[in-house]
From TrEMBL:
InterPro entries reported in the protein's UniProt record: A_deaminase_dom (IPR001365), Ado/ade_deaminase (IPR006330), Metal_Hydrolase (IPR032466)
Domain of life of the native organism: Bacteria
Lineage: Bacteria, Pseudomonadati, Pseudomonadota, Alphaproteobacteria, Rhodobacterales
The enzyme's E.C. designation: 3.5.4.4
Protein's recorded name: Adenosine deaminase
Species annotation: Octadecabacter dasysiphoniae
Length: 322
């Protein structure tokens, strides 16, 4: 059973986290950087737990040093995504990893990503949109210039604002300045919550940052009232089951809460997060959902429809990918 050719809409990926290890090794070699410690002998990324994953991720990012590097990254990532049937992808991009949060530098990186995305669309029929994310463990002060980059470049390609990084650092409300700025500019919002934090983290994120979508959100399952609230308010969860299973944020596939959340009427979508880091692809996610929960074409169609409605893009793009 493979779902490789089924069309897919993916809302939650981290651009640098989609970089194949061989791609990062190649950049490191070109630049004579020694990052051999972040790889296993078999060439895959090596890390012990989520906090170490974030360190390895940032070490991999040190090889991405120019707009041209990001151009090549976007081309490589979209070719791979398209090979798994992905027709529309949203990806988190962070000015912190593109010139350190400087707006002028950010514009150059962004132009390179946009031209790569346009070429990939022509070549593979896949549409990419970018969601600018601040990095939670870099702190609230670093989130402000990130929000400035976001509001200044919000448009056809940059279509939303969010937050990634270490979920257990601070509280959501600490980042309200950045989220307020993005919301006032009309940007749709999402934030990682309830992957490591409990239902209280999801509830505080909704209350204090007023986001439309939650990255992960799976720990909401521990609070029946919160689950009902998510369903009533139409909050969309960007669920990444393979990531959760690999990082042991949840139990194994058969214990994963996606089915229970869906049964409770919560809008759930399916994404890979950082596919080469978590040994997954969109094909693998769909295959495992079919095998574990018996999902078939009607279920996958519903998931795609939910993702299409929750996508941070304009209606013309929505019509094109529907
Ligand atoms: N979760 C949170 N922050 C991240 C991730 C992730 O999977 N990848 C890169 N930054
Ligand atoms: Zn994520």
């Amino acid at each position: 059973m493979t779902h490789k050719t089924l069309p897919k809409i993916e809302l939650h990926t981290h651009l640098e986290g989609c970089a194949p290890p061989a791609f990062i090794r190649g950049l490191a070699k070109e630049k004579s950087l020694d990052i051999s410690g972040i790889f296993n002998p078999d060439g895959t990324y090596a890390y012990r737990d989520f906090d170490h994953f974030l360190q390895v991720y940032e070490a991999a990012c040190t090889t991405l040093q120019s707009p041209q590097d990001f151009y090549r990254l976007v081309k490589a990532v979209l070719e791979e995504s398209a090979s798994h049937g992905v027709v529309y992808q949203e990806t988190f991009v962070s000015p912190d990893f593109c010139g350190g949060g400087d707006l002028a530098a950010w514009r150059d990186y962004l132009a390179a990503m946009e031209s790569a995305a346009a070429e990939a669309e022509a070549e593979h029929g896949i549409t990419l949109k970018g969601i600018i994310t601040c990095i939670r463990h870099f702190g609230p002060d670093a989130a402000k210039p990130t929000a400035i980059c976001a509001v200044e470049t919000f448009g056809d390609f940059i279509t939303g604002f969010g937050m990634a990084g270490g979920e257990m650092v601070g509280r959501p409300g600490d980042y309200d300045y950045a989220f307020d700025m993005a919301r006032e500019a009309g940007m749709p919002l999402t934030c990682h919550a309830g992957e490591w934090g409990g239902p209280d983290m999801v509830a505080d994120t909704l209350r204090d940052l007023k986001v439309q979508r939650i990255g992960h959100g799976v720990n909401a399952i521990q609070d029946t009232n919160l689950v009902a609230e998510l369903a009533d308010n139409g909050v969309t969860l960007e669920v990444c089951p393979g990531s959760n299973v690999f990082l042991q944020a949840t139990g194994g596939w058969s214990d994963h809460p996606i089915q229970k959340l869906r049964d409770a009427g919560v809008k759930v979508t399916v994404s890979t997060d950082d596919p080469p880091f978590f040994a997954t692809t969109m094909t693998h996610e769909f295959d495992m959902l079919a095998r574990t929960f018996g999902w078939g074409d009607a279920d996958f169609n519903e998931i795609n429809q939910t993702a299409l409605e929750a996508a941070f893009c304009d209606d013309a793009t929505r019509a094109k990918i529907a």
